[in-house]
């Protein structure tokens, strides 16, 4: 583009930064769309997103970063764990992100967010099942919405106000968190942290959920990709339950190409690529697939083109065939089939506990 921005920060930069802040995080495609409309207005003629060059984008990102730095914000980027797209986010570089967020939320909302994170990273992130995501109905369960849940003793100042949220308030907050790009909601209705949240909360998550230890082999709740070293909340795991090695699915091709054999780099266990981290821990189980079929999930199966769904059609991650356990599955189907969208009173962890034993090998 012929747009001159070097050296002077002008209205186009301000417009870009404003759009960026308003969206919370931006992919390259989104950034180029925004810049194209800014350039169109500025030049008085239509500029297509494809005409926006990488240099344009880089210069606007770096000008935005310069403008933000006196305010203790910086721009970071990471790869989206599913789409592999580069994603930019404005990240507070100094203060505790939850404190930061607290300026725009009520304390009840903050407590709810903390309990939601606990659900993601503790309740549904166990040694055997690293789901690291919360189904829509789980996010509205009493133990998450009700106040006086577990609080780490440090924040005494806030203890008095934890009254909890109503279902309606929680639903509204969840929608806001999705629109602000803190959370993503998958088409299977799981909430997980967005790239923005993972970047912003990285240090906080490690502090809150990982143990301090001198032994790098100790199991930890938050683990990193062996290839790119970013947090893995969606990807693959070593089938050795004691082993901490994780890999993004998007990182695996390059990683295995660089290795002599497809075995875990730490414990040497064969890597079959069917041990998951993320919602696929649930969505690849017999129970889930049966339930989905029984619920006549036209609306679900239609979405099969997506990133994770294509792998769902493959073999069950425990190696058990999908046709076994008809009876058990039918029973589970009673409980969890028939519209996972509607029934928020189910307690899905029961169904998950049942398969725990299968993971033992
Ligand atoms: Zn990775
Ligand atoms: Zn291993």
UniProtKB/TrEMBL annotation:
- UniProt keyword annotations, A-Z: DNA damage, DNA recombination, DNA repair, Metal-binding, Nucleus, Transferase, Ubl conjugation pathway, Zinc, Zinc-finger
Tell me which CDD domains the record gives.
RING-CH-C4HC3_NSE1
A Pfam short name: zf-RING-like
- Source species, domain of life: Eukaryota
Ranges for region Disordered: 291-361
Where in or outside the cell it occurs: the entry states: Nucleus
Q: Which ranges are annotated Acidic residues under compositional bias?
A: 306-315, 348-361
E.C. designation(s): 2.3.2.27
Q: Which GO terms describe its biological process?
A: double-strand break repair via homologous recombination
**An example Gene Ontology molecular-function term:** zinc ion binding
Non-structural maintenance of chromosomes element 1 RING C4HC3-type domain location is 225-267
The similarity annotation says: Belongs to the NSE1 family.
Q: What does this protein do?
A: Acts in a DNA repair pathway for removal of UV-induced DNA damage that is distinct from classical nucleotide excision repair and in repair of ionizing radiation damage. Functions in homologous recombination repair of DNA double strand breaks and in recovery of stalled replication forks.
Oligomer status and interactors: Component of the Smc5-Smc6 complex.
* Name this polypeptide is given: Non-structural maintenance of chromosomes element 1 homolog
- Provide the species name: Lachnellula suecica
């Amino acid at each position: 583009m012929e747009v001159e921005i070097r050296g002077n920060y002008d209205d186009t930069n301000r417009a870009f930064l404003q759009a960026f802040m308003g969206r919370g995080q931006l992919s390259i495609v989104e950034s180029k769309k925004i810049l194209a409309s800014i350039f169109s207005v500025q030049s008085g003629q239509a500029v297509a997103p494809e005409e926006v060059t990488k240099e344009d984008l880089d210069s606007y990102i770096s000008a935005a970063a310069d403008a933000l730095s006196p305010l203790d914000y910086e721009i970071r980027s990471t790869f989206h764990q599913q789409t592999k797209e580069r994603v930019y986010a404005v990240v507070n570089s100094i203060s505790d992100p939850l404190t930061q967020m607290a300026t725009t939320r009520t304390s009840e909302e903050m407590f709810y967010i903390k309990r939601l994170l606990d659900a993601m990273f503790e309740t549904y992130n166990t040694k055997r099942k690293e789901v690291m995501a919360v189904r829509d109905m789980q996010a509205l369960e009493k133990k998450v919405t009700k106040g006086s849940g577990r609080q780490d003793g440090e924040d005494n100042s806030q203890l008095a106000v934890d009254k909890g949220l109503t279902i309606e308030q929680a639903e509204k907050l969840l929608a806001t968190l999705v629109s602000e790009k803190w959370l993503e909601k998958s088409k299977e209705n799981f909430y997980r942290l967005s790239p923005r949240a993972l970047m912003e909360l990285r240090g906080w998550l490690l502090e809150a959920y990982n143990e301090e230890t001198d032994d790098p082999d100790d199991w930890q709740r938050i683990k990193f990709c062996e290839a790119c070293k970013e947090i893995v909340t969606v990807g693959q795991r070593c089938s050795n339950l004691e082993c901490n090695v994780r890999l993004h699915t998007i990182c695996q091709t390059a990683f295995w190409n660089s290795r002599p054999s497809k075995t875990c780099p730490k414990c040497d266990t064969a890597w079959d690529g069917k041990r998951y981290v993320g919602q696929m821990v649930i969505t690849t189980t017999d129970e889930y697939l049966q339930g989905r079929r029984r619920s006549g999930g036209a609306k679900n199966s239609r979405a099969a083109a997506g990133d994770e769904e294509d792998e769902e059609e493959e073999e069950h991650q425990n190696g058990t065939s999908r046709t076994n356990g008809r009876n058990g599955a039918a029973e589970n189907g009673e409980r969890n089939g028939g519209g996972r969208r509607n029934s928020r009173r189910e307690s899905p962890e029961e169904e998950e506990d049942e398969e725990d034993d299968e993971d033992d090998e």
